[in-house]
Amino acid sequence: MAAITLAELANKLGAELRGDGTVEIHSIASMGKAASGQITFLSDSKYRQQLIECQADAVMLREADVEFFHGNMLVVKDPYLCYALVAQLLDTTPVAATDIAPSAYVDSTATLGCNVAIGHNAVIEAGVQLGDNVQIGAGCFIGKNAIIGDNTKLWANVTIYHDVVLGSQCLVQSSTVIGADGFGYANDKGEWVKIPQLGSVCIGDRVEIGACTTIDRGALEDTIIADNVIIDNQMQIAHNVQIGYGTAMAGGTIVAGSTTIGKYCIIGGASVLNGHIKIADGVTITGMGMVMRSIEDKGMYSSGIPLQPNKEWRRTATRVHRIDEMNKRLKAVEKQLAAKGE
């Protein structure tokens, strides 16, 4: 969309317009950098002072902040949510593909819905089902019998292995791999024996997956990602993991095999989750969390050691290594005190 009037924006957002509804908005920007033709938003009242010098043609804000701005405004309940909606309306991101490129390979047994677009050098293997309005970017590989739902978009060089199911209205960023073998091996007197991974990956609707992320297929049953899950870049989701509805996972996180994550969880970046554990609904794990055991109760959990000056860190590390020795000494003192009746 090239431009939209404030009156049209107010109608689409269900906002209260105060000011000139004929003003045209062509893009959105932060308060400190917004200029003519742009709209911005105030989601945190502690930044009210920036409204004084704001050069945007309009601001989205709450009723409580109206008195601090004297220009055109859209009064809304949740400015940050409205920012997301306006960004969608003004989005200029190109499509992943248009039409079906001559260099794409589409097996004769594949089923394509209406308005499917497939980019250059993409491969669509036998038995694949692509829903309506699916976009397959350049260089993608869609393995045998995979199913991709309506309105799902894959950016360039995504790999979808055989039998994987990907729901409707999903978005997968470049170079992600879904359905590769899980890490399954038996050991025969020091020799590794591969265990064929016979499950698949089943991903729900409205799931977004970042770039260079891997989601392994199950060993016997499927790896399952529920609807409305968002998964960031460069993540490892191992075989037979289950992720519940509405969970959000930040970049660099590793989830080991057969772990179950509940609904509406938030997993901070660079976290590591052990295998064969369960995370309850509504759990928040802050960045670099190391989760070694199941979490049974909703709440916020943290681990890791914050950055310190090197000298302080060395002292801390030395003390950590001496915890066992200190514990033994403490128990000996407690035993002596108990013997004296103190």
From TrEMBL:
Active site residues according to the UniProt entry: 239 (proton acceptor)
Catalytic activity, reaction form: a UDP-3-O-[(3R)-3-hydroxyacyl]-alpha-D-glucosamine + a (3R)-hydroxyacyl-[ACP] = a UDP-2-N,3-O-bis[(3R)-3-hydroxyacyl]-alpha-D-glucosamine + holo-[ACP] + H(+)
Record has Cell wall biogenesis/degradation as a keyword: no
Source organism per UniProt: Photobacterium aquimaris
GO biological process, one term: lipid A biosynthetic process
Entry annotated with the keyword Acyltransferase: yes
Molecular function terms, GO-annotated: N-acyltransferase activity; UDP-3-O-[(3R)-3-hydroxyacyl]-glucosamine N-acyltransferase activity
Pathway given in the UniProt record: Bacterial outer membrane biogenesis; LPS lipid A biosynthesis
Sorted UniProt keywords: Acyltransferase, Lipid A biosynthesis, Lipid biosynthesis, Lipid metabolism, Repeat, Transferase
Record's GO cellular component terms: membrane
Highest rank taxon of the organism: Bacteria
UniProt name for this protein: UDP-3-O-acylglucosamine N-acyltransferase
Assembly, per entry: Homotrimer.
Enzyme Commission designation: 2.3.1.191
Residue stretches making up the UDP-3-O-[3-hydroxymyristoyl] glucosamine N-acyltransferase non-repeat region domain: 23-89
Pfam families: Hexapep (PF00132), LpxD (PF04613)
Stated family: Belongs to the transferase hexapeptide repeat family. LpxD subfamily.
Designated gene of the protein: lpxD
Summary of the function given for this chain in its UniProt record: Catalyzes the N-acylation of UDP-3-O-acylglucosamine using 3-hydroxyacyl-ACP as the acyl donor. Is involved in the biosynthesis of lipid A, a phosphorylated glycolipid that anchors the lipopolysaccharide to the outer membrane of the cell.
